[in-house]
Design brief:
Blueprint lengths: L1 H19 L10 E6 L2 E5 L6 H4 L5 E5 L2 E6 L3 E4 L5 E5 L10 E10 L2 E10 L3 H15 L10 H6 L4 H30 L8 H23 L1 H7 L1 H5 L4 H13 L3 H29 L11 H15 L9
Antiparallel strand pairs: 1-2, 2-6, 3-4, 3-7, 5-6, 7-8
Helix pairs in contact: 1-5, 3-10, 5-6, 5-9, 5-10, 6-7, 6-9, 9-10
């Protein structure tokens, strides 16, 4: 028990240190935010000339990841104090993307102040909550991406083992996600060894799986015996590997990587618990012999997948 507590404490300290080591994003010269999916509000910091502000040709708007495609500004509404301006667009914007707005030759009090750039994106809390909700429900790794099905069907026969595997899976996923991000950002990219990321990620996951193996063997031998070979299979499980790969491809920072790992882990635990709850009832239900076992489990999984499709397109902010 003392070993497990010390391990958890050390893991929490490691996560805190790694998150503090995350690179700080540079602040842009101007600030701005989404007012709606067709409006962006800019804050110039000083009162600007009305004639300049309402001239739509003074603004260049594009998505950060696709700078070659320019977005036309339909109209501009200047605020009462002339410090803020609302840019209006005809077509809805993708609020999950980051937009760059270049204001040319900003004029205030008849004087040209120079160009000003704005980076428009969701707030950090909105972004993190969106990542968490997306990984847990909207893009659930089991019911929408169909990953991790081996363990999913293997340990979802009883709620007890499903909960145990869900907790173990989540802990391994969170720890491996943040450590993998650190190794990718500060080792692989620095040394130009990004092509080794899959091997490094598998090794990182294997370390934490071995740690969880030792902990479960000590504190809960019964659960350890129930999980059996599936505990070892976590090492190469596609969900465990998908999280750090998504983090790397999406260029997530430490907080975003941690959030994705937590959301994916809780989503997997939720899927296991739901499936185990149904399969326990199926054990005493009158199921045709042809459908007993895995066949009926696949059918139930398909129904869950259809239900989770209802979360598609869900947007909180």
């Amino acid at each position: 028990m003392n070993f497990s507590r010390n391990f958890v404490r050390a893991a929490l300290v490691a996560i805190a240190v790694l998150m503090m080591a995350a690179p700080v994003l540079a602040e842009t010269a101007g600030s701005g935010s989404f007012k709606s999916d067709t409006e962006i509000e800019l804050n110039f910091g000083v009162p600007v000339d009305e004639s300049w502000a309402k001239n739509t040709s003074n603004y260049t708007v594009f998505e950060k990841q696709d700078p070659d495609i320019r977005i036309n500004v339909d109209s501009v509404v200047l605020g009462p104090q002339k410090v803020t301006a609302i840019l209006k667009f005809k077509d809805p914007l993708n609020l999950s993307s980051q937009f760059v707005i270049e204001a040319k030759a900003v004029t205030a009090g008849g004087k040209v102040m120079g160009d000003k750039d704005f980076l428009i994106k969701k707030s950090q809390m909105q972004l993190l909550f969106g990542i968490f909700l997306g990984a847990m429900l909207i893009n659930n790794f089991v019911f929408t991406k169909y990953l991790g099905l081996c363990i999913f069907f293997g340990v979802s026969q009883k709620k007890e083992t499903a909960i145990g595997m869900g907790v173990t899976f989540t802990v391994v996923m969170v720890l491996s996600a943040i450590i993998s991000w650190f190794l990718y950002a500060y080792v692989l990219q620095v040394l130009h060894l990004s092509f080794l990321k899959i091997i490094v990620f598998i090794g990182t996951v294997a370390i934490f799986v071995q740690a969880m193996d030792t902990i479960l063997r000590k504190i809960n031998p019964y659960l350890f015996k129930k999980l059996g070979v599936y505990l070892v299979l976590i090492t190469t499980n596609c969900i465990i590997l998908a999280v750090p790969l998504i983090n790397a491809d999406s260029h997530y920072n430490a907080f975003e990587s941690l959030t994705l790992g937590l959301g994916a882990g809780i989503g997997f635990a939720l899927a296991l618990f739901l499936m185990a709850s149904v399969r326990e009832k199926l054990e005493v239900a009158r199921v045709p012999p042809t459908y007993k076992g895995l066949p009926i489990a696949f059918i139930v999984t398909g129904l869950f997948a259809l239900a989770f499709l209802g979360f598609s397109g869900l947007s909180i902010f």
